[in-house]
Design goal:
The complex is a heterodimer. Chain A has a five-stranded mixed sheet with strand order 12-15-19-11-20. A four-stranded mixed sheet of chain A has the order 1-2-4-3. Chain A has a four-stranded mixed sheet with strand order 5-8-9-10. In chain A, strand 13 (298-301) and strand 14 (304-307) form a beta hairpin. Chain A is α/β, with parallel strands linked by helices. Chain A has helices at residues 42-45, 47-58, 84-94, 124-133, 146-149, 163-171, 216-228, 242-247, 258-268, 293-297, 309-312, 335-338, 394-398, 452-455, and strands at residues 5-14, 17-28, 33-37, 66-72, 106-108, 111-112, 118-119, 138-142, 156-160, 179-181, 232-235, 284-285, 298-301, 304-307, 317-320, 363-364, 368-371, 377-380, 409-414, 431-433. Chain A is 21% helix and 19% strand. Chain B has helices at 3-24, 73-90; strands at residues 28-36, 39-46, 50-59, 96-105, 113-117. The N and C termini of chain B lie far apart (36 Å). Classes of the chains: A alpha/beta, B alpha+beta. Chain A binds chain B through residues 29-32, 56, 61, 63-64, and chain B through 65-66, 68-69, 71-73, 76, 101, 115, 117-120.
Chain lengths: 488, 121
């Protein structure tokens, strides 16, 4: 009646990295019971009680025999309740209640209730992504989150409401409507905005770069940063609009590509909330400058790896406000915890102004600077050393101490490295606007202090009624803002 | 009939069924309901190689789970000690000692369901 050893496949996650786990069940001649071996954590070890109760409700109790369940590879620690379905099916197959032939070909993801109901385990989407990457063609998931698993393209999703349905499936009762082909989230575009993460306020779909009044140089800087995926730092006195500008950066970034979107969605799905659509807009994270190391870098313990702000900003914007107040010095961190895309680097730099047109917008390349205003003219770099990009990595951001000459510094990190043309890949490693070492400072138009441009009556707040009572004089008719005054 | 007497009668009936079942499988029943100050052995049998203490557990329905699940590891450990005591008291030698369990579910309408576990320790 019973087979010697039956196997069912499942997926364990370490951060976003998935590993195929073969759940082996064997029935032995001992007093009734169940033992789960293979380094389970506390919630996984409790699966034996859930499985015993759920199978008893089904009328096929595994509690009449001793079942040894091994999670192979046995030396890899495993967490969470997502193995319940695989354990129950392997045990039932070992007791001869269902044919075991197909169990190893399907990745099973699901937590069992005591009545046999299937529930969503944390990290369902990254597990489904990992299943596809590991070569599985099918996943069996709880019905309630089949839409989430179906976000993965080229993967057949078998949605099951409970354990009884899963058992009948393997017994051959195959209702076609249970299978959903992964559609890569094409159907879910409408609710993209619902799944933007980050701090409240930055998710607001009403944010728009058009909200920025004046500040043409800063807007140009944002545009260049968004177009070229450059890092960006903003300097200016309080109230100059740095945070307002920064919060609009995601709105001018393009939609994520399919692969980026899957990665960003997987990170979003590591928590307890079920996703119904892929994250298609670049996420934005703005950790407070007093945020702990774990909050920013991520952390975790034997209960699993937890993503920090850097990870959640993957393929989006990491916004470090008031950087000089906090130190943002987090030292070295493990790439497994951070889960950076392999092409990612974060390099804050201090760009020199262009010697030809005095533009503050400079893009550092491997050994030269590019000025976007001088029609992409490449300027050999003599005075300003561009750091050896090969040595720079994410950790260099965290040991970067921002200059304390200004009260506020905003930095953006866009996690990407690109290659351009036929040159070897180089790091597009950021630019600064305006540069803090320029004396005197060009203050991006300040509403309360009368900076040089405002004193001339050509402030950037022209026509904006919000500044009606701030004492900022309007631009005289027919005038425009003067060019940047710098280096005097 | 009160509950206790009912259970005793049920147990005795189960032990008789188990003995007949084991004899049918080639066991020789050496002793029944042997007891000392530490407890009681339901059946002591010899299967041609091993001296076997058999714990028989009988239930009239499986509403509370399998009868075998009522045998705890502690009880199995006590059976082992009792088997050693029995072997010492009777001067019996065997190349192997073993503890088996027989779970019997009695149904009024059907034949009793018998579940034999070998070497439960």
């Amino acid at each position: 009646m019973s087979r010697a050893v039956c196997r069912a496949a499942a997926i364990t996650l370490t951060g976003l990295e998935g590993t195929a786990v073969m759940v082996e069940a064997a029935v032995s001649q001992q007093l009734p019971g169940m033992a789960i071996i293979g380094l389970p954590d506390a919630s996984l070890a409790e699966a034996k009680l859930r499985v015993r109760s759920a199978t008893a409700q089904l009328g096929m109790p595994v509690s009449e025999r001793f079942v040894t369940v091994n999670l192979s590879p046995a030396s890899l620690p495993k967490q969470g309740s997502g193995f319940d379905l695989a354990i129950a099916l392997a045990a039932l197959a070992a007791l001869g209640h269902l044919p075991a032939a197909e169990l190893p070909q399907v990745a099973h993801l699901g937590e069992l209730g005591l009545d046999g109901e299937l529930r969503r385990p944390a990290g369902l989407l990254p597990a489904a992504v990992a299943a596809r990457a590991l070569g599985f063609r099918r996943v069996m998931v709880p019905e309630a989150c089949s839409a989430e698993a179906a976000l993965v393209p080229d993967l057949e999703v078998i949605a099951m409401p409970d354990l009884a349905a899963a058992v009948s499936w393997y017994r051959g009762d195959r209702a076609a409507e249970r299978i959903t082909a992964g559609h890569g989230g094409e159907r879910g575009r409408a609710c993209v905005r619902d799944h933007q993460r980050g701090s409240p306020g930055f998710d607001d779909p009403t944010l728009d770069i058009a909200d920025v009044v004046g500040q043409p140089e800063a807007v140009e800087a944002l545009t260049v940063a968004a177009a070229g995926r450059h890092h960006l730092s903003l300097l200016g006195p309080p109230g100059a609009g740095k945070t307002l500008l920064a919060s609009r950066l995601p709105t001018i970034l393009p939609d994520l590509t399919a692969d980026e979107s899957l990665t960003a969605s997987s990170i979003a799905a590591l928590g307890g909330v079920s996703l119904t659509a892929l994250v298609r807009r670049p996420p934005m994270e703005s950790p407070h400058h007093t945020a702990s190391k774990v909050a920013v870098i991520g952390g975790g313990d034997s209960g699993g790896v937890r993503p920090g702000a850097i990870t959640r900003a993957c393929h989006g914007v990491l916004f470090l406000d008031e950087a000089p107040n906090g130190k943002y010095t987090y030292g070295q961190c493990s790439s497994q915890i951070i889960h950076l895309d392999p092409d990612s680097d974060l390099i804050p730099l201090n760009a020199p102004p262009c010697p030809h047109c005095d533009s503050p917008v400079m893009i550092p390349w491997a050994d030269w600077w590019e000025c976007p205003r001088c029609d992409g003219k490449r300027l050999p770099d003599a005075a300003h050393q561009v750091p050896d990009s090969g040595k720079l990595s994410c950790s260099s951001l965290f040991s970067y101490e921002a200059p304390r000459t200004e009260r506020t510094l905003v930095m953006f990190g866009l996690f990407r490295r690109t290659s351009r043309g036929n040159s070897t890949p180089v790091y597009e490693c950021g630019y600064a606007y305006p540069h803090h070492s320029e004396q005197p400072h060009y203050h991006v138009g300040h509403p309360r202090k009368k900076t040089q441009s405002m004193a001339k009556g050509t402030g950037p707040f022209d026509g904006d009624t919000r500044y009606a009572n701030t004492g900022v004089p309007p631009n005289p008719p027919g005038t425009t803002n003067p060019p940047l005054a710098r280096g005097q | 009939m009160n509950t206790s007497a009912h259970n005793q009668a049920l147990g005795a009936r189960g032990e008789a069924i188990a003995a007949a079942f084991l004899e049918g499988r080639g066991f020789v029943i050496l002793d029944r309901n042997w007891r000392n100050r530490y407890g009681e052995l339901d059946l002591i049998a010899y299967d041609g190689r091993a001296l076997v203490a058999v714990e028989v557990k009988t239930r009239s329905s499986d509403g509370y789970g399998s009868p075998l699940s009522a045998i705890t590891a502690r009880k199995a450990g006590r059976l082992k000690r009792l088997l050693l005591d029995w072997a010492r008291a009777h001067g019996t030698r065997a190349p192997e000692l073993r503890i088996d369990a027989v779970g019997i579910t009695l149904c009024d309408t059907q034949a009793p369901r018998i579940d034999h576990l070998r070497s439960i320790l």
